[in-house]
Description:
Blueprint: E1 4-13, E2 19-27, E3 32-37, E4 44-47, E5 51-55, E6 57-62, H1 78-90, H2 95-111, E7 114-121, H3 124-134, E8 137-144, H4 151-168, E9 176-178, E10 181-182, H5 190-202, E11 208-211, H6 215-225, H7 229-235, E12 244-247, H8 253-262, E13 265-268, H9 270-275, H10 283-288, E14 293-295, H11 308-323, H12 331-346, E15 361-365, H13 377-383, E16 390-395, E17 398-402, E18 405-406, H14 411-429
Parallel strand pairs: 1-4, 1-5, 6-7, 7-8, 8-9, 8-10, 11-12, 12-13, 13-14
Antiparallel strand pairs: 1-2, 2-3, 5-15, 15-16, 16-17, 17-18
Helix pairs in contact: 2-3, 2-14, 4-5, 11-12, 12-13
Amino acid sequence: MTDTLRxxxxxxLRPDMSVEEADVxxxxxxxxxxxxxxxxxxxxxxDASGGLVMPGLVNAHTHTAMTLLRGYADDKPLExxxxxxxxxxxxxxxxxxxxxxTDLALLEMxxxxxxxxxxxxxxxxxxxDAVDEAGLRARIGHGVVTVGKDEDEARADNEESLEVARxxxxxxxxRVSTAYTPHSLTTVGEEFLVEFTEEARDEGxxxxxxxxxxxxxxxxxxxxxxxxxxAYADDLGMLTDEDWVAHGVHVDDTEIDLLAERGTxxxxxxxxxxxxxxGAAPVQDLLDAGVTVGLxxxxxxxxxxxxxxxxxxxxxxxxxLSTGDASAVPAEAVVEMATAGSADALGFDAGRIEEGRKxxxxxxxxxxxxxxxVHDYVSHLAYAASGADxxxxxxxxxxxMRDGEVQTLDAEAVRERAADHAExxxxxxx
Length: 430
Ligand SMILES: CSC[C@H]1O[C@@H](n2cnc3c(O)ncnc32)[C@H](O)[C@@H]1O
Ligand SMILES: [Zn+2]
């Protein structure tokens, strides 16, 4: 027996970036798209008139509970920001804080049409519970840092990452999947990267890590290993077509070719890269080389929001500015990066509106001043729309937001609790 949801009366964005007048019929039991076209009926309906049904946005690199640190420390470069402000504050985070910050992040995501994300953080059981209740799709990992830790602590951190990956893969009725997530090539010791990557491989667990984000991260690897960072990562077995790296700002042509050969995806985080003055990733070169490129916000403390519409616009603008080529990173490319590219990077069977795919969808209301007139829907998604234009959000066939009202979270309570936890964390951090 099927139990269907019809999202009808609007336009639909298809995988080839064409737009047609159509309805989308969803099976609420399997969570899959049944049909796209002129579809009558449906056991339940969502009104898409005056709107565009698009794949739900996928934020392929973030640290969700960093919403608690939004605006806590700004206007510093990465290394200084992490060491002076962020890591001391994170040292104070309790599981309850992480739950409150994650709930706030998930609320912001649902409100702005994001249906899936990747999270690298701590206290992951709380994150899994939050994802389960909010109804989103996520690939999660316990982030590992071994610098400054003794051998036993460092080993325990890596073991926790693998344990989390084993325990929670398939949680939340299959909406949660996992990864082994060493923070970066410079913050986790080589002996641990080798040992735990091999264990992850044996168990089919993919890898996600920050790579080539700043020159300060590239230079020590060049000096110590006489190798580019991604060649070094490849020698450690860290680049396969299941894995995805965040940033890839300072990659040279040999590294771009290596990523393409290995099938490893790169998640571009333009707002974070601009705010921390890390640099501009060679996104058009990555795309031209055939690398899968996704899009991510990074944490809310270096962005400072989780709005993937902002991220699309930033990606397109930065792609042009950094190359001096206005045709670089066009609208279609950034919309594809934020949907199919990110979904492919994370191994989600989503990101495209076609029969049989997961019904992870957003309906954008085009009947607003900033989206009038409509010469080109895709142009508006990339350059003019905002998360505030999202009318409905659907994940796995379930309605998470209807007419701007989030159904799975009590928005006011989530905001109040997060503000309260944020205040207490920053007080403790001093
Ligand atoms: C070990 S959990 C993840 C860890 O990453 C930190 N982080 C946040 N933003 C960035 C970034 O842009 N580059 C590197 N690390 C980042 C976060 O604060 C957590 O400590
Ligand atoms: Zn990050």
